[in-house]
Amino acid sequence: MSTIRNITVFLLVSFVFAGIVSAAIVPQGPDSTTEGAATTKAAVTGDTVTATAGNINSLVLTATTVTQTWQGYYGNITGVISLEDASGNPLYNWSLDDPEGLIFATTKTTAPDWADVVCWDQSSVDTDNYYTLAEYRSALGLVDADVDDIDTTFTDQNHAVMYFAGVTISANSCDSVAYLFNSSGEKEAGVFVETLLYDPDAVDGSGDGDIIFTAIIEDGAVDGFNDIDNDFQLMVGENGHNSNAGTTTYYIYAYIE
Question: How much is the pTM?
């Protein structure tokens, strides 16, 4: 079943220098993650109609059902930027109560090869060397006609420039972007932006890479779908079709500055 969970993330970003050699700062796993209780749409009791023998009545119904494709997360992030040695001894550090940056979610069991991460290309048909839209659609139990399909959800193309691990994702260069709803229950360009990135290095060596769900952290106080200040909002894929009760493990990373 698709749900929404609150997440509070604390991240320590360390800068380690040895001699004159330094490496690009890669996204890191959080120092702590507090996951709130899952919530989902409350069940609605059935409406009543009156049946009279011999009569025929028309019925016009509207209904809302829960997606069987997506899990939602939202929350806040604080952190520390630290200048420290390889043993974790800080020379100095700086607290970040309202950081900027990115939240990443991936099913890959090892850290992505961040230097190779690019935008995910929905239009690719290279099933031998790429994780295509058709393959991911199948993994999520979707068919092309489903309204909550990947390519009917991540339809926008406008996003800010993204920096991490020495990589620059130019503004508006990805074509798999979604604006998650604001406090008015509407999409708003540039607010609660989520982008699908791609790690071409599959952990199983199959040649197919891994999709990375990426949320841009909001700058300042922004009320989210639930009328509270959310630093980020994020959806990830999860196949709940055909009574599938299984779950999917996602690994969370963050890059803040």
Answer: 0.88
